[in-house]
Amino acid sequence: MERLVELAKNPDRVVVLTGAGISAESGIPTFRGKDGLWNRYNPTELATFEAFERDPLLVWQWYLWRMHLIANASPNPGHYALARMERLYPSFLLVTQNVDGLHREAGSKNIVELHGNIFEGKCRYCGKHYSEREFAELFPFADKSFLRSVTEQELKERVFPELRRNLPVCKRCGELVGPGVVWFGEELPPAALESALRASSAAELFFSVGTSAVVQPAASLPLVAKRSGAILVEVNPEETPLSARCDFVFRESAASFLPRFVE
Ligand code: BJW
Ligand code: ZN
């Protein structure tokens, strides 16, 4: 840690890539690994357009269940440390694969959400995007305040049975609207990906925090940075395919490492 802190004093351009691991300590399950199941379901099977076409009710129940969990969660010391880190460097970009919005809630400003935001809406048929406010109007069950006002049991017993008749319908094309996230096989928001690539290739110091580093194209960002000469740091209790390429590896949780680093 001392050697990293010494090296990290001078860089002007820093990029941090985060994944589900940073929100694990806020009580939000990760996707892969031993705790990587969301309410019995394998995320890689439900986070697709094919699953939505086949069974939109099941996919929406799964997303509402997750939205309920997220709406009732709070940022943890790892999120807050990254918000502080933003103020330490002249140029700092936080690139997240997370859809939970907890970085913004913790006070981070310069954020790129590569995989979208779970409280927004996206029509897979005509492409119309709904902001969080617009989507809560179209689909009141997705409203954060509503989700905070019900228990998980009420969600399952009261909301789920009503869902079939109340799924969100697109104002533009009349098809069903899905959550504002990027599913497998879908293109990432082009402007977000472009900013992330640009910042990564200019970074002097790059942190990969709480990600299994297997989902593309996000997993390529640390390698882009490394190729351009950045110092690469991984923070993850488990080994990943990226570990061997890193200059520093901290096998610990984000909420324990990051606050010590920005101290
Ligand atoms: C802790 C911790 C603690 C635990 N502290 N750490 C090239 C090669 C091969 C495949 C592909 C390729 N290019 C594209 C693909 C296909 C696919 C892909 O990558 N598949 C791989 C799985 C093989 N990629 C795509 O389909 C992407 N689209 C695309 O490329 O489109 C191309 C295109 C172009 C033009 C037109 C059309 C198409 C899209 C990927 C979208 C990913 N979506 C998801 C779901 C989001 C919605 C939702 O939330 O429901 O995003 S999948 C899921 O994985 C989610 C995550 O953001 C993403 C990454 O997961 P993450 O964050 O790394 O979490 P985990 O669980 O994997 O890891 C957690 C880690 O934390 C672990 O390592 C733990 O050890 C650690 N940890 N506690 C610190 N306290
Ligand atoms: Zn539409």
Automatic annotation (TrEMBL):
Keywords: Cytoplasm, Metal-binding, NAD, Transferase, Zinc. InterPro entries: DHS-like_NAD/FAD-binding_dom (IPR029035), NAD-dep_sirtuin_deacylases (IPR050134), Sirtuin (IPR003000), Sirtuin_cat_small_dom_sf (IPR026591), Sirtuin_class_III (IPR027546), Ssirtuin_cat_dom (IPR026590). CDD domains: SIRT5_Af1_CobB (cd01412). Residues 1-263 form the Deacetylase sirtuin-type domain. Substrate binds at Y63, R66. It catalyses: N(6)-succinyl-L-lysyl-[protein] + NAD(+) + H2O = 2''-O-succinyl-ADP-D-ribose + nicotinamide + L-lysyl-[protein]; N(6)-acetyl-L-lysyl-[protein] + NAD(+) + H2O = 2''-O-acetyl-ADP-D-ribose + nicotinamide + L-lysyl-[protein]. NAD(+) binds at residues 19-38, 97-100, 210-212, 236-238, 254. The active site is at H115 (proton acceptor). One of its GO terms (molecular function) is protein-malonyllysine demalonylase activity. The keyword Metal-binding applies. It comes from the Bacteria. Its cofactor is Zn(2+). Its EC number is 2.3.1.286. Its main location: cytoplasm. Binds 1 zinc ion per subunit. GO terms for cellular component: cytoplasm. It is found in: Cytoplasm. Zn(2+) binds at C123, C126, C170, C173. PANTHER family: NAD-DEPENDENT PROTEIN DEACYLASE, NAD-DEPENDENT PROTEIN DEACYLASE SIRTUIN-5, MITOCHONDRIAL-RELATED. Belongs to the sirtuin family. Class III subfamily. NAD-dependent lysine deacetylase and desuccinylase that specifically removes acetyl and succinyl groups on target proteins. Modulates the activities of several proteins which are inactive in their acylated form. 2 residues (Tyr-63 and Arg-66) present in a large hydrophobic pocket are probably involved in substrate specificity. They are important for desuccinylation activity, but dispensable for deacetylation activity. This is NAD-dependent protein deacylase. It comes from Thermovibrio ammonificans (strain DSM 15698 / JCM 12110 / HB-1).
